[in-house]
Amino acid sequence: MAHTQKQNFIDNSKVIIKPLAYYKMLVHVLRFGSKIKDPDNYSECMGVLLGELEGSGEIKDVIVHDAIPINHGGQIEVQFAEADYISFASIDAEVADKG
User: Fold this and answer.
1) Average pLDDT, the chain
2) CA-CA to 77 of 20 to 30 Å: which in 7, 56, 85, 93?
């Protein structure tokens, strides 16, 4: 596989997180990893971001419209469970219905 390296490449793209998505991410993360909690009770948090690409450049802007908490675990490198994949399918169907 060929690898192309671009020197002096300027990336002006943006990642924009809408307020509701940001709020939902914070609520999920802080519920399981807040500094006021005992570090022994921290859990990893996993979820899905929904959004779109905008712009006409080679590298598009990323607009995050929603954040959906899926799971939280108690160990490093937590894997998605089978039930999580069912949640993904449900989310995918709901998003497809909305267009």
Assistant:
1) 82
2) 93
* Structural domain contains residue 9: no
pLDDT band for 31, please (50, 70, 90 cuts): confident
| CA distances (Å), origin 21, targets 46, 50, 73, 85, 97 | 14, 9, 21, 21, 20
Query: Residue 55 sits in which domain range?
Result: 15-98
Our count of domains for the chain comes to 1
Average pLDDT rounded to a whole number, residues 56-81: 80
Over residues 34-40, the mean pLDDT reads: 78
